[in-house]
Write a structure and sequence with these properties.
The chain has 89 residues and is mainly alpha-helical. The chain has helices spanning 2-21, 30-42, 56-84. Belongs to the cytochrome c oxidase VIIa family.
Length: 89
């Protein structure tokens, strides 16, 4: 049991030093550059909010959400009107 814990501690302690010494471009993982590319896309100054920069699907989902919100607000207004104005019998 003691040897297993030493092996685990040793693997964690050596992994951090290996990662810290990786400075050349060939040692940086390829996924890093893909993430940077996506970050640059979303940080572009094009006047769009970040939740619309993904694709056309984002725009459609945004418009559906706004339409449903307006329908809900309209329904609440109708309900308040019906509850506040007495019905004529």
């Amino acid at each position: 049991m003691m040897n297993l814990s030493r092996a685990v501690v040793r693997s964690f302690s050596t992994a951090t030093t290996r990662r810290a010494t990786a400075t050349s471009k060939d040692q940086i993982e390829k996924g890093y550059f893909e993430i940077r590319k996506v970050q640059e896309h979303f940080q572009k100054k094009d006047g769009k909010p970040v939740f619309l920069k993904g694709s056309a699907v984002d725009n459609v989902l945004y418009r559906i959400t706004m339409a449903l919100a307006l329908v809900g607000i309209g329904g609440m207004g109708k309900l308040f009107w019906e509850l506040s104005v007495p019905k004529k019998e």
